[in-house]
Write a structure and sequence with these properties.
263 residues; 10-stranded mixed beta sheet
């Protein structure tokens, strides 16, 4: 159902069983997948690519032009995965680069008044709370949760199944499977409840994660030596190796005060 009171550009490609409510705006160069719903006063702008089952609430703007002086008017995209929900007054900017992409993966839930900047990538099954601010070129890996009013600075990476508690200002990388809280941001333990109940990790896997982070945050040694201790102390596994690879691939730059830095 497309309301006659909505604006839908003739160049937009609309899938089957799509509902576009009165006063919604659908621009040129837009693709909307099957079973999507665009609520009143929502805007889907040029470069948007919506998967199936996406729901966009009132006042949200998907594929807004970038808020960056480096953007010179080139065409780019904003891709939203299947079954993602974008709540009221969310703004998602498209890429600043020709043929670049800002992306939000499948089955994400982006709550009201959040902002996702240009060229950021939010992987599948993530939750962004009310008022979350994601700068440009940020990566949030699968299953992570950003609680209300979290601020992620430019080029930050948040690892798999991490939890960042409300109001945190994050200017470095958040390792996988952990909880980060307070300002300045600090390590607050393994994300055990989510890992066990939703990601179905075993007790042994969760204990290995907690042990790895004791070496990283509580061992009073260098981060380089902490990783060597993890390799010596914990049997090889996918979760152990993801922590090691994350720290190394991000040049040993991780969020949170470590004991060795306080001594």
């Amino acid at each position: 159902m497309i309301s006659p009171l909505a604006y839908v550009d003739s160049g937009a490609k609309i899938g089957a069983n799509v509902t576009i409510h009165p006063f919604a705006y659908v621009d040129k160069d837009v693709v909307i997948g099957d079973n999507c719903e665009i609520m009143p006063y929502a805007s889907v702008l040029a470069g948007a690519r919506l998967g199936a089952g996406v729901k966009i609430f009132q006042g949200a703007i998907v594929s807004a032009t970038p808020q960056d002086f480096r953007w010179k008017g080139c065409d780019s995209q904003c891709v939203i995965g299947d079954n993602t929900v974008i709540r009221e007054h969310v703004i998602i900017n498209r890429s600043i680069h020709a043929d670049g992409v800002t992306s939000v993966g499948a089955n994400c839930f982006v709550m009201a008044e959040s902002h996702i900047g240009h060229d950021s990538r939010i992987d599948e099954n993530c939750v962004l709370g009310n008022g979350v601010t994601v700068a440009g070129d940020v990566t949030v890996q699968r299953g992570s949760i950003l609680s209300s009013n979290v601020i992620l600075h430019e080029n930050v990476k948040v690892g798999t199944l991490a939890l960042v508690k409300g109001g945190c200002r994050i200017s470095s990388n958040v390792p996988p499977y952990c909880i980060i809280a307070h300002n300045p941001a600090k390590y607050y333990g393994a994300n055990a409840i989510v890992l066990k109940k939703h990601a179905h990790f075993t007790e042994e896997q969760i204990e290995d994660i907690a042990k790895a982070y004791r070496h990283i945050y509580q061992s009073s040694t260098s981060l380089f030596n902490a990783l060597r201790r993890i390799e010596a102390d914990i049997e090889p596994s996918a979760v152990r190796d993801e922590i090691l690879n994350f720290v190394r691939s991000n040049d040993f730059q991780i969020v949170g005060e470590r004991e060795s830095l306080r001594d």
